[in-house]
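Task 17 of the worksheet. Students: predict the tertiary structure of the chain below and write it out as structure tokens. Keep your answer in the requested format; marks are given for formatting as well as content.
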Amino acid sequence: MDNNASGVNLKPCPFCGGDAAASTDERGWHFVRCEVCRARGPAHPPRGVSGRPAPSGLAAEWWNFRPNGGA
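Model answer:
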């Protein structure tokens, strides 16, 4: 399911299997959250350490990471 503004397919929630959606908080930080259990992946700022815009889809990449190739 393409449920991310960057066009990255998000994996289901690793905790409940629910659908996930990309979001941005009031400060502009990007993250992915489960629509069912509200679990949330790591957030990243709108700009990187260098002051340049953070790569598009970084929050989705972090959400989709599963240790040892897990589902």
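Marker's comment: Helices lie at 58-64. The mean pLDDT is 85.
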